[in-house]
Amino acid sequence: MSAKYYTQFILTDTQYRDGNEFCGASNFDLQQSAVKLVSWSRLH
User: Strand, coil or helix: what is 26?
Assistant: First the structure.
């Protein structure tokens, strides 16, 4: 069983100009180099 996390992050890649801040517990298929983690916490 995989752990789930609530995260808030900013996309630093220029292709995401229109909305580059996200939060939630959804899965996103993103490259690690395009993401700056702001905060995270494990969901219970």
Answer: coil
